[in-house]
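G., the chain you wanted modeled:
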Amino acid sequence: MGYANPQQTAAGIHTRLYSRAFIIDDGRRRVVFVTVDVGMISQRVRLESVEIAHHRMKPGRIFRNTGELRDSSLNRSPQAYSHNPQQERDRFQENTDQQVLVLKFTDVDGDGIGML
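Predicted structure as tokens:
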């Protein structure tokens, strides 16, 4: 990442990395979503999540919902956004995206598996 100190040594776990994979298969195509708790992870962590998900696959349902989420985060720099062309800014009511999409995965009995 560009901030490494070659003289620095480390031992143990500072922050355990958690990831989870969701596999959607309609019989024709298979899509895998991998989520993680941190900004950067290794390929190994992602692959282990996918492998676990493949072993735990079972029939289920997906529920989709959308809504607005206000006053909770900034998804772009308001200062930088103000420098975008006026024509682009006119396409949006606000300088941040307020829309949120939630996917809920359940088994066939309706018991929760996870959410994205």
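Strands lie at 19-25, 30-36, 60-68, 99-107, 112-115.

Shout if anything looks off.
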